[in-house]
Amino acid sequence: MEMKQAVKIEGGVGSSPFLDEVQGGYLQGVFDMWEGEKGGSLGFMELLGIQDINGPSSLFDGIHVPSIAQESLSPARPNPPAVTKMEYSSSEVLNPPATPNSSSISSASNEALNDEQAKPVVDEEEEQYKTKKQLKAKKTNQKRQREPSFAFMTKSEVDQLEDGYRWRKYGQKAVKNSPFPRSYYRCTTASCNVKKRVERSFNDPTIVVTTYEGQHTHPSPVMSRSNLVTHLTDSAAFAVTNFAMPMQRSTVLSNCNQYRPQQPFVNGLSTPFMSFGSINAAAGFLQERRFCTQEASLLLKDHGLLQDIVPSHMLKEE
DNA sequence: CGACTTTGACCAGCGC
DNA sequence: GCGCTGGTCAAAGTCG
């Protein structure tokens, strides 16, 4: 069984509270929605370019959408809400989250790209040398600034989840306090410096935590694969086209039967696997769930599939 | 042969 | 300053 669950934007370096929680098992099966930092910055929906997700018909009507000011990431937090967890750092608010293939890719695209564009053409060796020096100087003068990042928890047997983009692995590191290594991937498309880190949850090895960082500067290669799209229903195809995100049918989403793919596809997985372009998973997720508000309204009360992913004590609290 | 993975080395940041 | 850790580089290996 596969499902993609908790989402969080993390802007820190190294291990994040999010991953700590993942490893602590707290977030497993929990949807937490973070609205942006301190309530003063853009909400997640705005960052995703979704204007009215909280509108009158929003599926969030009945779902607690905490602000970061109200909630803490502490595992000891009482009454954890059963929504998707996301968070932006302040710098991430300035740069929208990676929205590969999104129609709303803003001019505040990735830093590295801008750097490249500004770089004069020089001798190759010299350039390499300069690049290294620049990198060094950059790191010396300022704290490493990270691209907006976006983490997914995915219950999956495979580490490399098909998300519509092609990735090249450029590193692997053992993670402290975890038997599972963390893999580093970079988008293979030239001039696109989107990266992703993939690791397994310490507590639940079946959960893959994928953290995307940066913004794709090109359309997803998967979009041209008509054979993929033809497996989708109209709305699912809509979600793919508009949000291009890595997203599998989660247990929750599978409640929306009419949007379930007709048959399994992609990746050779045994379960229906909805492959999207990249990042923006929450957007697609939310967008999709707008189509099935009825089911969504039952979400928190439904002890059907939902109980697979939401701890029973949370359901009791609803 | 090109694309991709593996893996050891290197570097920066951080805490002590 | 030192050691630890995360992130990246790049050469070598693998695969189709």
From TrEMBL:
Residues 71-149 are annotated as: Disordered. GO terms for cellular component: nucleus. The keyword DNA-binding applies. Pfam families: WRKY (PF03106). Residues 156-221 form the WRKY domain. Keywords: DNA-binding, Nucleus, Transcription, Transcription regulation. Residues 100-112 have a biased composition (Low complexity). Gene3D superfamilies: WRKY domain. Residues 131-143 have a biased composition (Basic residues). GO terms for molecular function: DNA-binding transcription factor activity; sequence-specific DNA binding. It is found in: Nucleus. PROSITE patterns: WRKY. Its main location: nucleus. Belongs to the WRKY group II-c family. This is WRKY transcription factor. The lineage of its organism: Eukaryota, Viridiplantae, Streptophyta, Embryophyta, Tracheophyta.
